[in-house]
Amino acid sequence: MEIKYDNNGLVPAIIQDATTKNVLMLGYMNEEAYKKTIETKKVTFFSRSKQRLWTKGEESGNFLNLVELKNDCDNDSLLIQVNPAGPTCHKGTGNCWGEDNTPNYGFFSTLEAIIAERVANKDTAKSYVASLFSKGINKVAQKVGEEAVETVIEAMDNNDELFLYESADLLFHYLMLLQAKGFTLRDIEAELKGRHK
Fold it and tell me: Where does 107-196 sit in CATH, by number?
């Protein structure tokens, strides 16, 4: 792999969780750190403050286990995907920006958070979610059934716009049912991963 090191013999290395795709930290590698990372499969950096090689986890045990390493289009920065063995930051957080390293499903994660917030607020007069939850899990489950039937009906028709509309309704209500049962998309992901061969 061609790597263009800077005038100090270093290249920035962006560390990304191979599963969650979250950026965990930024470090720097020299050629020796790069070679050691490839050889040991444990991400090793060149510490600019200590002026020596430093394998992440050498003291804490929170290693960054190498999954994949690639350079960018100009060959002057690295993207390193890892399986972290514990928190990445020395302060105990999942990344060096003080955040947990949890999966994010884009807008679906936002929607899960909105549902949780509306359920917690219990404002049944202003919130459809709170109103449906107040009627109990049977009503939430019934609504998922209704939306599933409507989605199937639209799937057999030729109106893609209505099919997508009903599909969105189904997914929204299914997210509500998951929460009513105490689960999230992460639990469904874990179940599917367990089935994957």
Answer: 1.10.287.1080
Q: What is the mean pLDDT of the chain?
A: 95
In angstroms, the Cα distances linking 141 to 34, 115, 116 are 53, 15, 17
Q: How far apart are CA 39 and CA 34, in angstroms?
A: 9
- C-beta atoms surrounding 159 within 10 Å: 10
What DSSP line would sit under 125-162, residue for residue? TT-HHHHHHHT-HHHHHHHHHHHHHHHHHHHTSS-HHH
Q: What is the pLDDT of residues 43-52, one digit of tens each?
A: 999 999 999 9
Cα angle 15, 96, 38; round to 5: 25
The topology (CATH level 3) of 11-84 is Ubiquitin-like (UB roll) (3.10.20)
Question: In what order do the strands lie in the sheet containing 64-71?
Answer: 23-29, 11-17, 78-84, 64-71
Rounded to 5 degrees, φ, ψ at 66 are: -65, 130
CA–CA separation, 45 and 51 (whole Å): 10
Residues of the chain with CATH 1.10.287.1080: 107-196
